[in-house]
Amino acid sequence: MTAPSASAAERLELFGERAPYHSHSLGLIQLFLQLVLNSAVGLRGAASVLDVVSFLFPTPERAPSPNGGQMWLLRLGLYELSRPKERADDWVWLIDHTIQIGCNSPPVWRNPLMGKNLILQRKIGIA
Length: 127
Prior knowledge:
It is built from 4 helices and 3 strands, in the order H-H-H-H-E-E-E. By secondary structure, the protein is of the alpha+beta class. The protein is globular and about 50 Å long.
């Protein structure tokens, strides 16, 4: 995601860029993730907010579905779990709690030193 100090022009440029195999711009994906992660808006709420304000987007694109946003959120969590970590002697990983996202209930890992929650996708099989 773009740094908070990014200029308005830099943020607008993201609406012209698309990730490979994605139908939404990077700017819209960033807005969705910021609503969910920074503003405590749920997946359906974030999709509804972006649908309401879609006329303000610099490009004519539809608002994402809640399920599409959920997949972006899960991809972000997978990246956070699989990226190279800083080597340190004082790291502690604890399972803090689980949150319900649709049919999946991914465990949320909390790193007290970084103050970040990491989400890992887990499929729940019902017989």
